[in-house]
Amino acid sequence: MQQLRTNQPPGVTDYEDLAVLAERVRRGERRALAKALSLLESTRLSDKPRQHALLSMLAIPSAPTMRIGITGAAGAGKSTLIEALGLHVASNGHRVAVLATDPAAPSSGGSILGDKLRMTALANHPNAFIRPSSNRGRGDALDSHVRERIITCEAAGYDVVVVETVGAGQADTAIADAVDLVILATLPNAGDDIQALKRGVMEYADIVVVTKADLDRAAARRAVQQIRSGRALLRNRDVDWHVRVLATSSTTGEGITELWMLCQEFFADGRRPNIEARRRQQRMRWFDESLHCELIALLRQRASTHFDRIADAVAEGAILPPVAAATIVNHLETP
Ligand SMILES: Nc1nc2c(ncn2[C@@H]2O[C@H](COP(=O)(O)OP(=O)(O)OP(=O)(O)O)[C@@H](O)[C@H]2O)c(=O)[nH]1
Ligand SMILES: [Mg+2]
């Protein structure tokens, strides 16, 4: 593995500086971690070789980590739940990093800025690190750098990394591709949500949390029952893990200890092979996606005018997409 890592890749003039930065990240320096994340979140094409060099230095497996995704509708109580759970976990001696990745959907009124303010207790905890969204306003379902950001936080010694994302369409599956454990947060009275979720996100959820139980305990109990019976009709993602459903309140703290116990059960030593199997699949999909992006970029660069002309023809319906794709690739082969 070691020899596969890139040494002094082309396009990197400050390799030594990056090595120093990586070392500071590994020592757990917060400012270095923030700086590394900023570089990794850059969308400038010219930063790519430096991003890859830094990541290759950081991506050396450390002790086992827990990657937890929290998804759910806007306002479901995800951030508040993360704060309550995060404080519990951090005071149990774990180091917790929180990555907010929701795209600041207009409906949630730009809660990202508020997240760090809202999670003040967690933000001030010595064992916690909170990083707001990197793709504010871009509108992506899940920010495309989330995997890089997770690896970087782990390199800095955070053994629990929590990713928050608004569960909307593609983000549901995208989060399942980036973390080990998916927690779905849902409101007690979200009847329609529950119907929709049964088909969509629930396929990917390992734990379902009915939030804000303090507001209406009877409704929360009913929701738990409803989801449990709905879930019974669906497949579990892993044969040895049955999806758990519980009610919590971040205000009163009820259910938070139980939720953490479920997480620990999920990450028990005996389940590590299953988690590693998920990560293997995720790495392969990440590889596929990366290859896809690199090839498209290469094709655009090598056959730019041709590419645009054919793309226009595809849009007009003048040429079928698979025929067009083959034409572009064939064009590369002809000198
Ligand atoms: N009573 C009560 N209110 C809660 C609880 N959890 C969250 N809230 C409130 O619900 C509102 C939304 O909570 P957030 O944690 O911001 O929800 P979110 O899912 O992160 O929202 P977005 O990031 O905007 O999608 C806030 O006003 C919280 O104070 C809870 O357990 N009980
Ligand atoms: Mg939030």
From TrEMBL:
It comes from the Bacteria. InterPro entries: GTPase_ArgK, P-loop_NTPase. It holds the Pfam family MeaB. GO terms for cellular component: cytoplasm. It comes from uncultured Bacteroidota bacterium. This is Arginine/ornithine transport system ATPase. One of its GO terms (molecular function) is GTPase activity. Belongs to the SIMIBI class G3E GTPase family. ArgK/MeaB subfamily. PANTHER family: METHYLMALONIC ACIDURIA TYPE A PROTEIN, MITOCHONDRIAL (PTHR23408:SF3), METHYLMALONYL-COA MUTASE (PTHR23408).
